[in-house]
Amino acid sequence: MVSILENSTRDKIFYASFKLFLENGYEATNIRDICKEVGIKASTLYFYYKSKQYLFFYIYDGICLDYINYIQDIEALKQDISVKEKLYILLKQKIEYYVLDISKRKFILRYHLFPPEEISNVIREKYKFYNSEENKIILDSISNSQHKNEFINQNIDDYLMQYKKLENHLVYEMIISNIKINDEVVRKLWDMLWINVAK
């Protein structure tokens, strides 16, 4: 049985590593830095995480899985409402998720935009996998709707790409301005995207 102290040490390593990887980058963060931040010896860190790379991907996967689980639990995706409204609610809920802890999104963006060379291939593969999982949830939600025939007159892949562009635009704006995008702006941009797609 794992003790409370062990859980606490594991958590401290996790959060200190997350902070250092986010602020300093993967290459500039070493095990010594993490141990100093937590106040432990390297042997203690290696008891929980077998390498720096393993620790990094433990954090990366944890963030991505949390996001996927969050999307899967959005009730609106299971409701029989119009596709337009369903996807708007999904977009709003995603923005709310990012607002709760924008640092998670900053972490993912940093490593997608500037992947360290030694782990760039793994990051690319993981990105493809998690992106595909998210797209499956969205597509399942659409295909289960009785209103799907009202949906899109163009290739669904093109639409998803536009949808993600809008989402990313809103997230970048929040990161740069450090201000939450209000619902009125989200709705306006969403309506504009929908008009263009539904032509």
Q: Which regions are unreliable across 5 or more consecutive residues at pLDDT < 50?
A: 1-5
User: Which strand-content bin applies to the residues?
Assistant: under 5%
CATH class of the largest domain: Mainly Alpha
CATH A-level architecture of the largest domain: Orthogonal Bundle
Q: Major β-sheet, in short?
A: none
- In total, how many beta strands? 0
Summarize the amount of helix as a percent range: over 70%
What would you give as the CATH superfamily of the largest domain?
Answer: Tetracycline Repressor, domain 2
CATH topology of the largest domain: Tetracycline Repressor, domain 2
What does this structure look like?
With 199 residues, this protein is an all-alpha fold. The protein folds into two domains: 50 residues, Orthogonal Bundle (Arc Repressor Mutant, subunit A), CATH 1.10.10.60; 142 residues, Tetracycline Repressor, domain 2 (Orthogonal Bundle), CATH 1.10.357.10. The chain has nine helices and no strands. Helix 1 crosses helix 2 and helix 5 packs across helix 6. The longest helix has 24 residues. It is elongated. The N terminus is likely disordered.
Write a brief caption for the model.
By secondary structure, this protein is an all-alpha fold.
